[in-house]
Write a structure and sequence with these properties.
- Chain B: This is Polysulfide reductase NrfD.
- Chain B: Pfam families: NrfD.
- Chain B: It is found in: Cell membrane.
- The complex is a heterodimer of chains A (205) and B (386).
- Helix content of chain A is 17%, strand content 20%.
- Chain A is α+β, with helices and mostly antiparallel strands.
- Chain B is mostly helical and 386 residues long.
- The longest helix of chain B has 31 residues.
- The chains are: A alpha+beta (205), B mainly alpha (386).
- Strand 2 of chain A pairs antiparallel with strand 1 of chain B, so a sheet runs across the interface.
C-alpha cells in the first residue's frame, strides 16, 4: 500500500503564501477560491498576532485537504464521486459529482470549494498544468495532492515551491521516507484529531 | 376545470409557482451563484425548507395511519385530507432537494452508482417508499372499490416509514462529525417530535381552510381532540430540545460553547428564541387548558404559531451548524461566490459562516410553497367533493 502524505513544519513556515499560489497556478483554480490557504492562527487579521503585548506569538497554518485515512466526505457522497484512491489520496470524480454538497458539510476542515458559478479567471485564460482536468459549474473541487504530478513521481507543486522548506512530501507506508521520519518527530500532530478522521497531512509545531 | 380556474387561491398560487419555475430556469442558466450560499454556508434556504416540508408531511400520514392501526375511529373522518396534505408536502420536499443540486443533469448517477453509506442515498430510498405509500393510501381510499382492509394493510407500513423518513432526514445532518451543532443522537427524535407538532398544526390549519371554503366539514370536537394531541407533541418537542441544550452547555467545552453562543446570543438567536417562546411555550400554555381547545380561534392561533415556530427551528438547526468553523484563523474560508469572483481579496474571505438568502432564492422558495398550496387545493376539490 501507499499512503501519500504531506508534513508541514510550522516552525519553518514564514506565511509567504507561495504554496497557496503555486497550488492555484498548477491546478487552474478559478477566481474567488483557493484549494490551499494560509491562515494566521488565533487572530482576525492576516499577519496578525496571538496573545497580549508583550506576550505575542504568530503562527501560520497552511490548510488544504487533509487526505484523511477515514474521510468523512467519502462516506456521505451519494454517488461515490469522492473516493480514496490506491495511493491513499482523497480524490473527486468530477463526472459523478451531482453538486449536493454533502461532502462540504461533512468536512471538518472546510477544505472543499464549490463552483457556485461558471468558473472565471482574471487572466481570461486557463493557467494550470495541461494535465489537470477542467471543472465546470456545479462541481465540487479541492486539493488532489497534485494527482497529475504525484502520479508521475513529482512532488506536489506546493512542496516543490516552498522557499522555507517547510513542506515534506512522501509515502507514510515507507518507514524510511522523509515524511515518515518527520511524522515520528515527537512534535508532529494532526488537526482535529478528536474527529477521528485520521488525516495523512500533519503538522510539526 | 372551470371551477378550479375561478378559484382565486388556485390561480394566485399557480401564478406564483410559475414565477418560481421561471426563477429556477434563471438559476439553471447562471448556477447556484444566484443564491446566497457559499463555501462557508453550503446549504441555505432550500434545504431548510426541505427539512420543514418533510416534517409537515408527517402529521397527516401519522394521524391517518394511526386511525387505522390503533382503531381511533374519530380520526378516520379526516384521514383523506390528511393524506392529501402529506402527499403534497413530501412532493414539495423533493422539489426543494432537486432545486438545491448544482449538477442536476448528472442526477442519474444516483441510480447507477449509489453509495449506500450516504445518508442522502437512504433519504432518496425512504422518500420514494414514502411517496409510493402515500399514493397507495390515497388510491385505496378514493377508488370506487374503497377497501378498509387494504387501507389497514397500507397504514401498517405507513406509520414506520413516516417515522423513518424524518429520522433519515435528521441523519443527513446528525451524522456529520464536522458540525458540532448537528452531531447529536437526539437529532432524529427532535425531528420526529417537531414533525409531529408542525404536521398536526398544519393539518388543523388546513381543515379550518377547507371548512371555511365549504369543501370539507370537520366537527369541532375532532379539532379539539387533535389540539390535545398537538399539545402533547409540543411538550415532547420542548423536552427534547431542553435535553440537547443542557447537554451541549453543561460542561462548557469549546465546541459546545461556540454552539450555545451562536444559538442563544448570536446569529441564530432570533430564530431560537422565537421558536422557544412563540412556537413552544405560548401554544402549549394555550392548548393545555381544555376550555381553550374548544375555542376554534385559539386552536387556530396556536397551530399557526407552532408551524411558524418549527420553521424557525429548521433555520436555527441549519445555520448554527455552519456558524463557527472548526479551524478559526485569518483570513478564514474562501467563499467562491459571485462577489468573491468579482471583488478580489476583499470579498473573497469569511472568518465565520456567512449567509443571507438572495431575491431569486426567496422567489423560488415562495414558488415551491405556492406549488404546495395550489396542488393541495386542487386535489382537495377533486377528491373531497363527492
Amino acid at each position: 500500500m501507499t499512503r501519500l502524505a504531506i508534513g508541514v513544519n510550522l516552525r519553518r513556515c514564514i506565511g509567504c503564501n507561495t504554496c497557496a499560489l503555486a497550488c492555484k497556478m498548477q491546478n487552474n483554480v478559478p477566481d474567488g477560491m483557493l484549494w490551499n490557504r494560509v491562515l494566521t492562527e488565533g487572530c482576525e487579521q492576516f499577519d496578525g498576532a496571538e496573545g497580549t503585548y508583550p506576550h505575542l506569538t504568530r503562527t501560520y497554518l497552511p490548510l488544504a485537504c487533509q487526505h484523511c485515512e477515514n474521510p468523512a466526505c467519502e462516506r456521505v457522497c451519494p454517488t461515490g464521486a469522492t473516493y480514496k484512491d490506491d495511493k491513499g489520496r482523497v480524490e473527486i470524480d468530477y463526472d459523478k459529482c451531482i453538486g449536493c454538497r454533502m461532502c462540504m458539510a461533512a468536512c471538518p476542515y472546510n477544505a472543499r470549494t464549490f463552483n457556485w458559478n461558471e468558473p472565471v479567471r482574471a487572466t481570461g485564460a486557463a493557467y494550470g498544468d495541461a494535465r489537470v482536468p477542467e471543472r465546470g459549474r456545479g462541481v465540487m473541487e479541492k486539493c488532489t495532492l497534485c494527482k497529475e504530478r504525484t502520479d508521475e513521481g513529482e512532488e506536489p507543486l506546493c512542496v516543490r515551491c516552498c522557499p522555507a522548506d517547510a513542506r515534506v512530501f512522501g509515502d507514510l507506508d515507507d518507514p524510511n521516507s522523509a515524511v515518515s521520519q518527520l511524522r515520528r518527530d515527537g512534535r508532529a500532530e494532526v488537526l482535529l484529531e478528536e474527529k477521528g478522521t485520521r488525516p495523512q497531512v500533519f503538522y510539526v509545531r | 376545470m372551470t371551477s378550479l380556474m375561478k378559484n382565486p387561491l388556485v390561480v394566485g398560487s399557480g401564478v406564483l409557482a410559475l414565477v418560481g419555475a421561471g426563477v429556477y430556469a434563471y438559476q439553471l442558466m447562471f448556477g447556484l451563484g444566484v443564491t446566497g450560499m457559499n463555501n462557508s454556508t453550503s446549504w441555505g434556504l432550500y434545504l431548510t425548507c426541505f427539512m420543514f416540508f418533510v416534517g409537515l408531511s408527517a402529521g397527516g400520514l401519522i394521524v391517518a395511519s394511526s386511525a387505522s392501526i390503533f382503531g381511533i375511529k374519530k380520526y378516520k373522518a379526516v384521514a383523506l385530507p390528511a393524506v392529501i396534505l402529506s402527499l403534497t408536502c413530501i412532493c414539495c420536499a423533493g422539489v426543494c432537494v432537486l432545486v438545491d443540486l448544482g449538477g442536476i443533469q448528472r442526477i442519474w448517477r444516483m441510480v447507477t452508482g449509489l453509495n449506500f453509506m450516504s445518508p442522502l442515498a437512504w433519504d432518496m430510498i425512504v422518500i420514494t417508499c414514502y411517496l409510493v405509500i402515500n399514493l397507495l393510501y390515497l388510491y385505496f381510499m378514493c377508488s370506487k372499490k374503497a377497501d378498509p382492509a387494504k387501507v389497514a394493510v397500507v397504514s401498517r407500513f405507513a406509520l414506520p416509514v413516516a417515522i423513518l423518513v424524518h429520522s433519515v432526514t435528521a441523519w443527513i445532518f446528525g451524522l456529520e462529525v464536522a458540525r458540532e451543532a448537528w452531531h447529536t443522537a437526539i437529532l432524529a427524535p427532535i425531528f420526529v417530535a417537531s414533525a409531529l407538532d408542525s404536521g398536526l398544526a398544519l393539518l388543523v390549519l388546513a381543515l379550518f381552510g377547507l371548512r371555511s371554503r365549504g369543501v370539507f366539514q370537520t366537527a369541532d370536537e375532532l379539532i379539539t381532540s387533535l389540539a390535545g394531541l398537538l399539545c402533547t407533541c409540543i411538550a415532547v418537542d420542548a423536552y427534547f430540545i431542553g435535553c440537547e441544550i443542557l447537554t451541549t452547555a453543561y460542561n462548557g467545552t469549546e465546541g459546545g460553547m461556540a454552539v450555545i453562543d451562536t444559538l442563544l446570543f448570536g446569529g441564530t438567536a432570533p430564530f431560537f428564541w422565537f421558536e422557544v417562546i412563540c412556537g413552544l411555550a405560548v401554544p402549549f400554555c394555550l392548548l393545555v387548558f381544555a376550555k381553550n381547545r374548544r375555542n376554534m380561534k385559539v386552536v387556530g392561533v396556536a397551530s399557526a404559531l407552532v408551524v411558524a415556530g418549527v420553521f424557525c427551528k429548521r433555520c436555527w438547526l441549519m445555520f448554527t451548524g455552519f456558524a463557527v468553523p472548526n479551524i478559526v484563523g485569518a483570513n478564514g474560508i474562501t467563499l467562491g461566490t459571485t462577489a468573491a469572483q468579482a471583488g478580489g481579496a476583499a470579498d473573497m474571505w469569511a472568518l465565520m459562516g456567512v449567509y443571507a438568502p438572495t431575491v431569486p432564492e426567496v422567489m423560488l422558495t415562495v414558488g415551491i410553497f405556492a406549488l404546495g398550496v395550489c396542488a393541495f387545493t386542487v386535489l382537495c376539490q377533486k377528491l373531497l367533493r363527492k
